[in-house]
Amino acid sequence: MPYHWPKDTDFALLELDVLDRDCPFCGRLMHICDHRYRHFHSLEGPVELVCKLNHCPDRACQGHAKTKSPELEMTIALPRMAIGWDVFCWIGHRRFSRHWSITQIQSELSDQYHIKISDDSISSYIQSYQAMLAARQEDPPTLRQQYQSVDEVVLCIDGLQPEKGHETLYVVRELTQKRVWFAEPLISATAQEVRRLIAKAKQWVESMDKKVGLWLSDRQDAFVTGIAVEFPGVPHRYCENHFLRDVAKPVLEVDSHAKVTMRKKVRGLRKIEQAVLKQQGVEALKDTTAADADPPAGVVVPAIASPPRTDSAEAVVLDYCAAVRGIVNDDQGGPLQPPGLRMAEALSEVRESIQRNLDEEKGGSQRSNLAVWPVASTEVSTPCGVNTRQSEATSKRSRKSRRPLNPKAAVVRPARRGSRN
Ligand SMILES: [Zn+2]
Question: Ligand 1 centre from 92 Cα, in Å?
């Protein structure tokens, strides 16, 4: 369906001429015989592209019946598309590099660039982008160029399941140049099918005239046999990630058990937070009543809405709660950083930090309201609307402290999932 442009669209005008105007058949100077008008979106706004079409003025020449379009037209926008290359690449990049959803791409185009296109159009642009990218990746001259300085390649094959229930996608990658060579979905990964992919890799290697130094895989039977037949004498090693994961299995089981035990022990955050909020609410109410002698009847001042008193003990306690909640809900980590171990380390840091605060309080005036915090006993996993504020805990730290503990930092530990292989 042609794109519907509103009547009052303000197009930027772009005119294109044929650059080489010699008739390809008789060499005579060609004449302009027609104009093609195209409209498309660019990131800078809507464009009206006027293409001047040329043909040979000599009716007897073959060049008379054929019109020539401006050479640069294709470099500005693809035929039949309502978007220019810039928007096309923008969409492809957001989809494949940033993993945005189509809805997200659609809203961002509309909000940021006032480009309104349907989700089906975006989906079809994405397909075209993918096809072009794949063609480019597998383009033999490009590949040869990239591998010019490489003598030996390291190949790797693995099966990935993009989504549950989908057929497995078998991917062959080359590791020295970090390049995906090709990928194929196999409904039944028989030894024969897998071997076909390995044979394809062999063709690529041969066409580039390279040696294979090493194959890596998770050593599934089909990989082991296929590689042995197609690449005799080439070493075939366990990929480090799979190897570690398999070796670490018993460790991770123990670690997971330790994590559960720690979670059971660290409880009652919610109750502490509620007590703090209640206290803050009472104080906020006092302030409000003082400022405004006649508050509207029936209005309950929400505790959370009271201005954060960043220097108060309450704020520090809330920060600690947020930090601890972040720590006990953090499941990140792989075989080399077991999540339970990370949790134990982080909790010890929190304990040390609290201890340092208490040590500094000793001898000074004890805050009477500290006695208010109830003994912890409730669930910890309840989500809570408390914002993490910069904690005063950090500034009250003792000077001999090993390294700074910022409760906020503990909440946003870098997320890193286990394996990508
Ligand atoms: Zn001609």
Answer: 41
CA 65–ligand 1 middle distance (angstroms): 9
Q: Can you tell me the distance from the alpha carbon of 57 to that of 416, in angstroms, rounded to the nearest whole number?
A: 67
Do the Cβ atoms of 34 and 87 come closer than 8 Å? no
Q: Are 236 and 228 in contact (CB under 8 A)?
A: yes
CA of residue 70 to ligand 1 center, whole Å: 17
- Strands 31-42 and 236-238: what pairing? unpaired
Ligand 1 mean position, distance from CA 61 (Å): 5
Query: From the CA of 22, how far away is ligand 1's center (Å)?
Result: 8
Burial of 152 (0-12, 13-18, 19+ CB in 10 A): exposed
> What spacing in Å lies between the alpha carbon of 49 and ligand 1's midpoint?
26
Q: Which residues surround ligand 1, an ion (CB under 5 A)?
A: 23, 25-26, 56, 58, 61, 63
Give the pLDDT of residue 268.
86
Nearby residues of 251 by Cβ (< 8 Å), 6 or more positions away: 335, 338
Are the C-beta atoms of 55 and 98 separated by less than 8 Å? no
- Region 140-238: CATH code: 3.30.420.10
What type of residue is 411? V
Tens of pLDDT, residues 181-231: 988 888 777 888 899 999 999 999 998 899 999 999 988 889 999 999 999
**Overall average pLDDT of the 343-362 stretch:** 88
Q: Where are the domains of the chain?
A: 12-134, 140-238, 248-292+299-411
Residue 51 has pLDDT above 50, yes or no: yes
**Centre of ligand 1 from the C-alpha of residue 250, in Å:** 79
Does residue 125 surpass a pLDDT of 90?
yes
User: How many A from CA of 68 to the centre of ligand 1?
Assistant: 12
Confidence of residue 311 (pLDDT cuts 50, 70, 90): low
- pTM beyond 0.70: the answer is no
